[in-house]
């Protein structure tokens, strides 16, 4: 799969709440980094199994991701690296209130697997979902 095909699968798995399949998109030694992590979220997850564990627990949070809208896609001179400017459309499942969260995401995708997912999310756009 190309990096763009992997990213489209990632979008579908997140929207479908298929967190097992989401985790399976990562390499065994894949990493998620969230340098601007909001309260209650880790700033780093190391390895597919840590990503799986976190993702399955996140399914219990009162949030539904309706869509991940790519505002701008940046392909780089390195064919493994893709940068997305993204808006997450979601809703708090407890209150029904919709929200939008903006971010820049950097991916390194090798041989059809996500090696690195670095998420620079604007904490000011993420609602309190507790």
TrEMBL record:
It comes from the Bacteria. Residues 15-115 form the SnoaL-like domain. InterPro entries: NTF2-like_dom_sf (IPR032710), SnoaL-like (IPR037401). This is SnoaL-like domain-containing protein.
């Amino acid at each position: 799969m190309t990096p763009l095909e992997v990213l489209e699968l990632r979008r579908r798995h997140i929207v479908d709440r298929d967190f097992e399949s989401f985790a399976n998109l990562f390499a065994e030694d894949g990493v998620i980094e969230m340098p601007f992590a909001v309260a209650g979220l880790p700033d780093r997850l190391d390895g597919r199994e840590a990503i799986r564990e976190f993702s399955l627990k996140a399914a219990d949070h009162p949030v539904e991701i309706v869509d991940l809208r790519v505002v701008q896609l940046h392909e780089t001179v390195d064919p493994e690296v893709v940068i997305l400017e993204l808006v997450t459309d979601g809703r708090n499942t407890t209150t029904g209130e919709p929200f939008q969260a903006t971010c820049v995401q950097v991916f390194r995708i090798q041989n059809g697997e996500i090696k690195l997912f670095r998420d620079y999310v604007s904490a000011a756009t993420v609602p309190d979902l507790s």
